[in-house]
Amino acid sequence: MALLRFVFLFILISFSASAQKDYKLWLQYHTVSNSAIASEYKNNSKGIAILGNSETIKIAEKELKTGFWDMLGNVPEIKSEVKGESDIIVGSRSNLNSEIKKELQSDFGKINNEGFIIKTISSKSKKQIIITGKNDVAVLYGVFNFLRILQTNKSVTNLNIVDSPRTNIRILNHWDNLDRTVERGYAGFSLWNWQKLPDFIDQRYVDYARANASVGINGTVLTNVNANALILTPQYLEKVEALANVFRPYGIKVYLTARFSAPIEIGKLKTADPKDSEVIDWWKNKAAEIYKRIPDFGGFLVKANSEGQPGPQNYGRDHVDGANMLADAVAPFGGVVMWRAFVYSEHDANDRAKQAYAEFQPYDGKFKENVIVQVKNGAIDFQPREPFHPLFGAMPKTPLMMEFQITQEYLGFSTHLVFLPKLFQEVLESDTYQKGKGSTVAKVVDGTLYQNKLTGIAGVANIGNDLNWTGHPFAQANWYGFGRLAWNPYLDSEIIADEWLRSTFSNDGNFIKPIKNIMMKSREAVVNYMTPLGLHHIMDTGHHYGPGPWVSNLSRPEWNPTYYHKADEKGIGFDRSKSGTNATAQYAPEIEKLFDNLETCPEKDLLWFHHVSWDYKLKNGQTLWNSLALKYQEGVNQVREMQDVWSKAEKYVDSERFKEVKMLLEIQHKEAKWWRDACLLYFQQFSGKELPAEVERPTQTLEYFKSLKFPFAPGNG
Ligand code: BDP
């Protein structure tokens, strides 16, 4: 009996230890061995002076204790003032003594309010590490950064880090509904348990805030852009307030989506016309009511007159009227309005890719100063690859914020390993040429191109209540990487992958090197097996799960994949050049020229901009048909390589996560083949050509692939 109990306990403990690894994200704090740090802090600790007593500072203290205990096996003595010798001094500028303040004066001149300094200073023959910033949240960022240095095995001697975020708003957009379903969510249900709030505070809320703070994310939009006005009623605001209270000490502000017709739906008004005085007052009062509860409320995110959502155009007004009315309501409290430019209309026969630019560019300079226009990275919709959105750089007098999608709506849900920071980096590095060479999207987004004061990056969250938060263990890297790039849009994605792997799994070089390699290739793999050479939006409609290039029966033309690939006997691709819709003209002349010409258009974007004949020769000397087929095959091969590499990782990873990733890669492989076979069989009807020898033969017929239906695919409302 006793033995049985012991065995049971053992299983329980090892299960929870393993499960905890999944839950702990990149904050594993696994033992740091074989490093100078370990010996320094193990044997020679003089303690940590923690200055200040705000909730935020207490969080920093707890984090340091946990980090030291887990990574180094000891907790240094914590002191509340600098007395005697201290290894590390942690506190905001106002709490530092004048000697240290003087020493750091020029560094303080280099950081903004959220920036931090981690510096080794030597005085009177002793060396100390100072972790500081202008306020306590900045100090917390510094602490997380310091712990990351330890966790990733970097040297802690002579530290000299002076770092500030380059953007103001670093925010997650949760497309979470009040019934806890998550639009385009593939990791379970919403974290927000509205039914139990405000009285029940799930530990997950705290852990969520902690994870975000560790990468510098400072805002969260709790609700879906397809908004429900009920969130603005007192019944729900009380719950929002409870979440805001949890997040505040972590430096995270809460924002809500504002349904434009809320004055009618919950305010009993007859109209939501932004020029109507009752409507204006209703929003002003609503803002005051919210700020009374949540003094640091961030503001509103709005999807208006887009995909059937209500908006100012319902009343003959425009986006500027709508955004500015809301901006006036939150301005007295320091709030902002993030107004989305994701618009396209079924009444507009124009190329969908042109519509957002056509509508928004003329508004440049017309928005109030607390409005920021939120633009998706590409002109269609979060595809595996899109050229950068032509609005970037084209609205010099308007702050634009980036909207990335972290959840993998079009990139394999949470079953495909795709390292998105590589995609994000490609977009951020793109040169818009709008102010000459070097006018990168990153410079638009961080405000340096046009000296915008308000800046931001949003990521549509991939987080749900799955044990591991994101469905796929490697999808955690996309949350992490989003945060790191929002902080610094110039960061190299390879560095992000390296940091994440070390903090999440292991510092062992034999593990890091091959696994980092497959992460870095994974984005190109998904492009290859789904939408190579500039193809886009050929996913099955509605849920967007799997291939559906044949779909052509939906009421709105631009909802049909056939609208996007335009395959026919002559060739394939969307002619957006001068001979077609002339979408290329929305870019700066240098880029327009590049994209417009079939010969100079980058091959990765070829079918985005051109309808190309099946026999057209690509740079590799192969015909378009052959190249397309070979790309699909390459994607499948790349997944096989990922499987192969992962199978050798077993000894570096806990068995639970090892098995999870292994199974997920099997699904990815199966689906990559599905994509290849279905798309090639379908396109072959038009090309009339044989598959090149290197391409594996499909194992099913086109009819079979067309017959597959997924009525309960997740995330589809
Ligand atoms: C599309 C999604 C849809 C979103 C929409 C948006 O399919 O669920 O509501 O974008 O961003 O990608 O508003």
Protein architecture, described:
The protein has 717 residues and is α/β, with parallel strands linked by helices. It folds into 3 domains: 143 residues, Chitobiase, domain 2; 333 residues, Alpha-Beta Barrel (TIM Barrel), CATH 3.20.20; 144 residues, Alpha-glucuronidase, C-terminal domain (Alpha-d-glucuronidase, C-terminal Domain, Alpha-Beta Complex). It is 40% helix and 10% strand. The protein contains 23 helices and 16 strands. A hairpin with a 2-residue loop joins strand 4 and strand 5. Helix 21 packs antiparallel against helix 22. The chain is globular. About 1% of the residues have low confidence. The structure holds beta-D-glucopyranuronic acid (BDP). Beta-D-glucopyranuronic acid (BDP) binds next to loops.
